[in-house]
Design a protein that fits this description.
By secondary structure, this protein is mainly α. It folds into two domains: 193 residues, Growth Hormone, Chain: A (Up-down Bundle); 195 residues, Up-down Bundle (Growth Hormone, Chain: A). It is 77% helix and 0% strand. Helix 3 packs antiparallel against helix 13. The radius of gyration is 21 Å and the shape is globular.
Amino acid sequence: MTQPRQRKVRDFRLPQIYAIILIDVIVGSAVGPILPEFVKGLQRPQLWLSAGTALFLGMQLFSAPLLGKLSDGYGRRPIFILSSVGTFLADCFLLPVRVGFYFANRISDGTTNGMYATVRSAITDISPKDQLFKNLGIEGAIISLGFVLGPAVSGLLLTTFDVVQGNQAKVVAIMAVTLSSVNMLLSWTLRETHPNPPGVDTSALKNELIQSLNVQLLWSRLAEKDSKYQGLKQLVLMQLALTFSIGYYNYFVTFASFGELHMDAKAISYFFMYFGALSVVISYVFYAYMADRINQQRAIFWLALIGVPVLGSYGLVGSSLVGLYILITIDCLTLSLIQGLIEGLMAQLTTDDDRGEVFGINQALQGLGSFATTLVFGALSLLDLRLPFAWFAGCLAIVAWLANQKLKKL
């Protein structure tokens, strides 16, 4: 007697994770162009914008390792749910267009933004080894797509309903709250990717929080992991230097709004639409068809080396929109591809036992790096709005140097 054939259940977890990422980035990129509205009228508005960015990114210093540890102990799904609720509350804070609520948003959203360590862990959990670079590359492409759709949806909303300038921030904030509620539903229905999580002792969580606020201990933990996964520390250092350099993503709205370009919210939205659309296409082609077939270490070196003059040239673009668009095109072909390569190499070194913890430590150091680079470019912008790009270019040169050092050891 033949046994009845079992029906194969399709696994939708990866597309669902991608959807959560997409909506999260759409929300973040949609509200970006309206943030100057919260600090207009204050003296030195670029300083207040930089302070909010530093607060948002600095919160990850303690939240990323904590959320990573929780995801290893209790599973990835609870962290997705917690983060989606935090983002929803953060967007609610934007409804009153007041500077105090702007900082409340930065604290809430920054704390739960540590979710991205869990995102990469979840993708790695369910990705076959031969598709890991591809799946992480698609994650990068989706993030770029979100940067296209966010400003596009925001701009379409404001244009369709002909919203006057004084009401634009509130209308976009309402849209962000609505989309964040969709992400809460998607996170709640996500099936777990980390099988049989062992749980975490309460004292261990307290210790994790204390350690995550101690940079020296954070570095010691990385060194310990490096002894287990040789080469991990150098990859984290490379990503830290890259974090310093891509601080220009957070600085650009300030530079474009208050610099020689004098771009308004619509012009900034169009710029990010072009940047994101081009980045999506290039990233997808690169990670889907090329990343697994090349020497990733060597690619990081050359992409960083070529990207150095590109970053420096942003500060010299003056009021030329044509020059700006030429630079961003070269940007998409070079330095924008580096992060996915580093993350792919890092993912290959980890195991199911502590993958969330490793990515959490990495994201905490990135949070520290983002906080530090924001303080630097905030201070430099007070002297001259063009100066931060010299800092960004110098940090990317360090990425190229570290990649070259790693090549010499091979």
